[in-house]
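Predict structure. Chain length: 142.
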Amino acid sequence: MSKAPEGAPSTVILVIAAGRRLQEQMEERLVGIGLSVRLFSALGHLSRDADLSYSDLARRAGVTSQSMRATVLLLEERGAVERNLQGQGHRARLELTDKGRALLARARDLVAELEAEFLGGADEETKGALEEACRRALGWPR
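Prediction complete.
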């Protein structure tokens, strides 16, 4: 394995710095459409599975259940999510509204734009290697 030249930042440091910068840029873009990374994440999870509990959503987002309840309440207040009660003794289904689906689509477009800017003219092999390294570091399946 080759070592970086003396004084050169390690790849890990570069990835951490790039991640911070990308998160800042993503937050800046999302705020323009009334979202944050936390709200965007919740919308994305709910778009794939409306039967997630607050605890399930919180675990996926890495926050407390109380924080996720506040997040969902904020999404409800903005008209992006609605809670549909399925009868006594059953938990609520959290479903995206048309406004929520439109917000999620716009947010995904912003993320795609940011990704295109970040990756610049990288070829598919380089993009694939970067994605694979990130998935491996996070323990995410392919």
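Summary: The mean pLDDT is 89.
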